[in-house]
Design goal:
By secondary structure, the protein is α/β, with parallel strands linked by helices. The protein has one domain: HAD superfamily/HAD-like (Rossmann fold). Helices cover about 50% and strands about 10% of the residues. The chain contains eleven helices and seven strands. Strand 6 (about 190-195), helix 9 and strand 7 form a beta-alpha-beta unit. The chain is globular. The protein starts with a helix and ends in a 6-residue tail after the last helix.
Length: about 270
């Protein structure tokens, strides 16, 4: 009997080791980053989003509200909405990093190599040409140089309205709602752009997957009208809903947790 138990435990340890090895030898980010880098569908979703946003602006410009009430505006996030940092994510893959890395991100931001997302500059210029105010509300923190880095990047990309009245950089908080509400006091906001539900409303700042689903269902009519959502499979508050934090440590346990989240609805063992 002791011999049988010993064999069973040996097999169990072997199978566990195999599973752990399988997880540790893979990279959580590989599939998502490969999609960002190669999928024409990724680019198409940006064009689709900006096309819808432009349609919404057209509707407002041709509606009775234009010229009667508040001036018109749009509010947008920046990273993974108007500007892309795909080489940063490629660097993480190349160096076997599997979750967002703050120190690497800070170096990337300082290098000033971000690019406009497909259709972003055309949409922003369309807004400017039609006197639609553009407000940028973003979360970044690279210390004292945070705003300078971002202004340099946006100016290099020829983005309009890069000034103190239109660019809001939140360094200590991810809560954009206070600034957004201040803008809404003075402007009729046509549409909000973002890659994260929390870019639209603080009510989405929850860490339960089911609750996030329910909130989206409750607000389903707003997507494509009030809110335009862009694709981001690499980071965001969906990560927080899995791990309890947006930037989890690259541990084996967290890799296993990601695998469990991905395989939770497998149709069979």
């Amino acid at each position: 009997m002791k011999y049988q138990i010993s064999i069973f435990l040996s097999i169990l340890i072997f199978l566990t080791a195999c599973q752990t090895n399988e997880v540790t030898s893979s990279n959580n980010l590989a599939y998502a980053v490969a999609w960002k880098k190669t999928a024409a569908e990724y680019r198409a979703l940006y064009y689709q989003g900006f096309n819808i946003a432009r349609q919404r602006v057209d509707e407002f410009m041709n509606s009775p509200i234009n010229g009667v009430g508040k001036p018109l505006a749009i509010i947008s996030d920046l990273d993974d909405t108007l500007i892309l940092s795909d080489p940063y994510w490629s660097y993480l893959i190349k160096h076997d990093l599997e979750f967002f890395d703050d120190s690497v991100w800070d170096e990337w931001v300082a290098s000033d190599q971000a690019t406009p997302s497909p259709g972003a500059l055309e949409f922003l210029n369309f807004c400017e040409e039609n006197n639609i105010s553009v407000f940028y509300v973003t979360n970044r923190n690279q210390g004292d140089n945070t705003r300078e880095y971002l202004v340099n990047t946006l100016n290099r990309l020829d983005f309009p309205s890069v000034d103190d009245d239109h660019l809001f950089v939140l360094q200590e908080s991810s809560n954009k709602e206070l600034i957004q509400n201040q803008i809404k006091d003075d402007y009729e906001v046509i549409v909000m752009l973002g890659d994260n539900l929390n870019d639209f409303s603080r009510e989405y700042y929850v860490s339960d997957i089911g609750e996030r689903y329910s909130l989206v269902e409750n607000n389903s009519e707003k997507y494509g009208s009030d809110f335009i959502l862009f694709p981001n499979p690499t980071d965001g508050h969906w990560i927080r809903a899995i791990f309890g934090e947006s930037e989890p440590a690259p541990t084996i346990d967290n890799k296993m947790l990601m695998r469990e989240a991905a395989s939770s609805s497998a149709w069979r063992d």
